[in-house]
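Anyone able to model this chain together with magnesium ion?
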Amino acid sequence: MSEADPQSVRIGHGYDLHRLEPIAPMGQGRPFILAGIVFDHPVGPVGHSDGDAVYHALTDALLGAIGHPDIGQLFPDDDPRHEAADSSGFLIEAYRRVEEAGYRVGNADITVICERPKIGLRKSEMIANIARLLQCAPDQINVKGKTHEKMDSIGAGRAIEVHVVVLLRRMSS
Ligand code: MG
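re: yes, here you go
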């Protein structure tokens, strides 16, 4: 495989946003979950599935990198099978497609933007979950936490946003 081969690496970008509301039955929020880690927090994501914005953005980044339909097309949010679904299932399917296309994860860089909770102390657990699902080493996955400086809906604690960039490397056959 030549380094000049334009298909030897593929880049994908993923983005997700969820509204945050008090946890049901006080509001419509589900338990606050990121990369499969549940945070003890009074508000949580409103969503059809479990609302895991990291898994959703990562799923879309992988699908985008291989030019496949996006998460909303593959797993419609009006499909009752995905009601309260564990979003790791979406990521597992996206990664299955990545492998089928002949690629593995080079690295993924993930930025989580929310005022609260602070994710710093639980980053390593999030990274461990992601690395397990993407069959790579933890040092191939990076998670950054930022606030929105109290600005706008995210800064007011009413939403969470996640951005992901992933690089895939083609496996030599
Ligand atoms: Mg989502």
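The helical segments are 53-65, 71-74, 88-100, 123-133, 152-155.
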